[in-house]
C-alpha cells in the first residue's frame, strides 16, 4: 500500500535543495563541488528522472549501491522498473498534483526492486525541477528497512508482554492495603465473566462462595494486617456459574523503605488436580479389585528383581498355596522353578522374561515351558510385559502370564490331524487323477466304439431306403426314416457330450480380445444361416480378457439358440450389444423368438434339460450347459431374462483388459 505524506521536515527540504545544487553542478557544469561529493556519497538514494520518459538521468552512489545497478544500466531504465507496484497510469495519477502545481513535494512509501531480485521498503520524496533546457524529477529515497524492523520488534515486544500478562495460567490481580483490588489480568475476566467496573474495589467478593466468604475475608484481613503472604484454597465461581477450587496466593509489594504498598495475587486452578487425586485414590481401590479378579497372572517387580506383588491368578497358575514361598528375589523363585523353550532347551535366568523386561525389552506372547523342581508338574505359559515408569527415574516391571497348556496340546493334536488330512488329500487326489484317466478312456470309447455301430446303423438304413424303397410299404419306409433320425440325434448327442467333456478338461488360454472383431469372426461362421435374420451388432471397441475358444463356444451357442427359437417369428431379429459396468464388459444376445417361462430358469443351464419338444425345435439340450461351463472356467458369468412369446436375452459378463479403446489409442498416437 502507498502512503502519502505532505508533512516533510526541513532537513528533507534542505537535502533536496542540496541535491538540486549537486545535480546542477555534476550534470550541467560538470564541476565536482564539496557538497556534490558529500551528497553523492550519501547512504540515501538520490535520483534525477526525465519527467517525460521517467528514465534515470542521474543516481547517487548510495542509490547505485542499494539497487545493484551501474549508472549505465540505470540510464537505460525507468523508475517503473524499480518500483514495480506502479504502472504508467497509476504513477501519472500519483504525480498529477505535483505536475499541476498543487503540491511542491510528494512523499509516499514504495518498494524498490534490486538487480538481484530482492526488494526493500523506501520513503520517497519527489519534487519537480524545472529548468529551461528540461523538466526533471528530483527523487530522494530513504531505506525504511531498519525502521520497519525496529517497529516490528517493538510490536513483538508489546505483544509478548500482553501475552505474558493475559495468558499466564493463573488469574492475577493487584490488591490495595485496605483489602480492595485495583487491577485484574484478562484471565480473571475470562473465567469469571465479569467486567472491570464490577470488580473494582471490593467487587471480588461477588465471585466467592457465600458460605466460605467470611473465612476468606478473615484470612485476607489477617494477612494484610500482618503484612504476611496469604496461601489458601478458595472456590471461585466461573462465568458458567460453577465453583472451581483455586490455590490463592498473595505476596506483599514493598517500596524502597520496606513499606507494603500493594499486594500481588494469583489464583491457580487446582480443581482438576484435586479431582484427579480423588480419582486416583478411587482408581487404586478399583485396581486392587481388578488384580484380585484377573484371569491372567500378574507379577510386579522392582528394578532390583524383587518380586513385590503376585495376584491370586498368578499364584494359582504356579500352584502356590503360600505366597511367602515366592515373595523375595527372582533367585529365590529360580530355586523352585525351571524355564525352557517349547523345544525343551533350558533357559538361563538372565534370559527369563522378567530379566529381559528389566533390561528394557517389551515382551509380547513369549511361550516357554515351566517345570517345578520339587514335584511332577509341567505347564506352558505365555509371557508379556514391559516397564512402566513414574516420577522420572522410578518404575516397575509388569509381567503378565497366560496358561496356554491346553491350547498348545490342542494345536499339537491339530497338527497331527493336518498331517493325516494332507495324506488323505494326496490319496484322494491320486484317486481323482485315476478317475480322470478313466473318464478320458470313456470319452475315447464313446468317440470311437459307440460311433462305429451308429455309422453302421445309419449306413444300412440309408441303403435300405435307397435300394429297397419300392419294396417297402409306407409304414416300413416311415420306420427306416425314424431309425435314421434317431441315429443322427444319437450321433449329435455323442458329439455334444464329447464337446462338453473336452470343455471341462481343456487348458484355458487367457488373452486380450478385441471384442468387435471377435464377434464378427464368430458370426461369419454361420454363413447363410443368418440370411433371413435381421441382425444388429452395436458395441464400442472394447478389449476383454477371456479364453478365445471358450468365448467362441459360448457366443456360437447363444446365436445358434437365437436363430433356432426365433425361426417362426414374422421377422426373425437378433441384436448383439455390449457396454461397460464397473470393470467388466456386458455382452448380450437378444432375440424375438418364443422365449421361456422364468419359473423354469434354474433348468435351462442344466445338461440335457429342454423346455420345448425336440420335434419342434431340434437339439441335444447341452448347448446352454456348455455356455455356463465355458463362462465359469474363464471367470465370467451368464444369466438370462425372458417372457413367453416375447423373446429372450442372454448376458455374458467378461472382465475388461484395462487397455484403451482402439480409437483412443489412435488419438494418443497422433
TrEMBL record:
<dbReference type="GO" id="GO:0000156">
    <property type="term" value="F:phosphorelay response regulator activity"/>
</dbReference>
<dbReference type="Pfam" id="PF13426">
    <property type="entry name" value="PAS_9"/>
</dbReference>
<dbReference type="Pfam" id="PF08448">
    <property type="entry name" value="PAS_4"/>
</dbReference>
<dbReference type="Pfam" id="PF02518">
    <property type="entry name" value="HATPase_c"/>
</dbReference>
<dbReference type="GO" id="GO:0005886">
    <property type="term" value="C:plasma membrane"/>
</dbReference>
<dbReference type="InterPro" id="IPR000014">
    <property type="entry name" value="PAS"/>
</dbReference>
<dbReference type="InterPro" id="IPR000700">
    <property type="entry name" value="PAS-assoc_C"/>
</dbReference>
<dbReference type="InterPro" id="IPR050351">
    <property type="entry name" value="BphY/WalK/GraS-like"/>
</dbReference>
<feature type="domain" description="PAC">
    <location>
        <begin position="230"/>
        <end position="282"/>
    </location>
</feature>
<dbReference type="Pfam" id="PF13188">
    <property type="entry name" value="PAS_8"/>
</dbReference>
<dbReference type="InterPro" id="IPR036890">
    <property type="entry name" value="HATPase_C_sf"/>
</dbReference>
<keyword id="KW-0418">Kinase</keyword>
<dbReference type="InterPro" id="IPR004358">
    <property type="entry name" value="Sig_transdc_His_kin-like_C"/>
</dbReference>
<dbReference type="InterPro" id="IPR013656">
    <property type="entry name" value="PAS_4"/>
</dbReference>
<dbReference type="InterPro" id="IPR001610">
    <property type="entry name" value="PAC"/>
</dbReference>
<feature type="domain" description="PAC">
    <location>
        <begin position="364"/>
        <end position="416"/>
    </location>
</feature>
<keyword id="KW-0597">Phosphoprotein</keyword>
<keyword id="KW-0808">Transferase</keyword>
<dbReference type="InterPro" id="IPR036097">
    <property type="entry name" value="HisK_dim/P_sf"/>
</dbReference>
<dbReference type="InterPro" id="IPR003661">
    <property type="entry name" value="HisK_dim/P_dom"/>
</dbReference>
<dbReference type="Pfam" id="PF00512">
    <property type="entry name" value="HisKA"/>
</dbReference>
<dbReference type="InterPro" id="IPR005467">
    <property type="entry name" value="His_kinase_dom"/>
</dbReference>
<dbReference type="GO" id="GO:0030295">
    <property type="term" value="F:protein kinase activator activity"/>
</dbReference>
<feature type="domain" description="PAC">
    <location>
        <begin position="106"/>
        <end position="156"/>
    </location>
</feature>
<dbReference type="GO" id="GO:0007234">
    <property type="term" value="P:osmosensory signaling via phosphorelay pathway"/>
</dbReference>
<dbReference type="InterPro" id="IPR035965">
    <property type="entry name" value="PAS-like_dom_sf"/>
</dbReference>
<protein>
    <recommendedName>
        <fullName>histidine kinase</fullName>
        <ecNumber>2.7.13.3</ecNumber>
    </recommendedName>
</protein>
<dbReference type="GO" id="GO:0000155">
    <property type="term" value="F:phosphorelay sensor kinase activity"/>
</dbReference>
<keyword id="KW-0472">Membrane</keyword>
<feature type="domain" description="Histidine kinase">
    <location>
        <begin position="445"/>
        <end position="658"/>
    </location>
</feature>
<feature type="domain" description="PAS">
    <location>
        <begin position="157"/>
        <end position="201"/>
    </location>
</feature>
<dbReference type="InterPro" id="IPR003594">
    <property type="entry name" value="HATPase_dom"/>
</dbReference>
